[in-house]
Amino acid sequence: MGLIFKIVMLFLFCGFLHSQQDSLTTNEYITTFPNKISTRISLVNTSNSFIINDVANNAKYELKPNVREYLGFSVLFRSIEIDYGFSPKFFNANKDNDNSRLFNLNIRTFLGQWMQTIDLYNQKGFYFSSNNQRVNLSGVKTFKIGGSTSYIFNKNFSFRAIGFQNEWQTKSAGSFVPSIYYYYTKYHLTLEDIDEKASSFDIAVGPSYYYNFCLTKNFLFSLGAHAGVGLNHSSNLGEGDFTSILYDFSGRAVVGYNSDTFFAGINSNIILLEHKIDASTVQDDTIPFLEFYIGYRFNAPKKWIKLADDFNKKYGL
Description:
The chain is built from two helices and 19 strands. The protein is mainly beta and about 325 residues long. The longest helix is centred in the first third of the chain and has 16 residues, at about 1-15. It is globular, with a radius of gyration of 21 Å.
């Protein structure tokens, strides 16, 4: 955490040393900032939770992590975004959760109209609830890695303006965005004499649609949703190995403010993966995400700009 914080602070300090010459370019629909580095600090509430529905016995069980809030730091330049988060103990949602942790890392890149995301969730310390009863399980760990590959059909629609804001939507537009999602999840339970491991792999494909509403020159409201279908393969979650149909859904709502150098907003998103782990048991794998953020843009070093321009020219991007 200390190293990442120092890097972000260094970027902000260097930004004040650079001249404030306007480096943005515009067209009718999108304002871009090709020669700017965007830095952002955010307060995030997120987790990877699991709900088990035992249809045969009409029972419902929830497994939710103790730690759900963290501070996030982001750095964006051209097509690359890197996010890092950590969970301070002094947050109300994280208090009294000794031996619990949440580590979250997100990477997003844009290559032309293609968008690639990579998500990582490493969690320790859950509580198990059923029939209004709650039990703390400090020995439960989960590790999830995966992401999505998407294609943005409408060149006049800016996905980068939704929360990430190294672009800005200057005229309302929407786009069809087909996506393929894939996640690998590993579970580890240690409790007294119990030491059990399980895993799950998800892959699904489906359509998405997003629309950016330009309320004023500086304010944006965005809505979007994705629905898909695919396959899940689980090992040792239910009755040994089990393969079933996977249904996935995601939704996003964003409110953003933007100026040449300063930006801020609220970014909300949810991902739901539903599948069976045996013939009569359904598992819902959910990742809710709520973020409040502020950010600042400054001029990128000339060497970075030249390197990016040379790369784009070489590969025709």
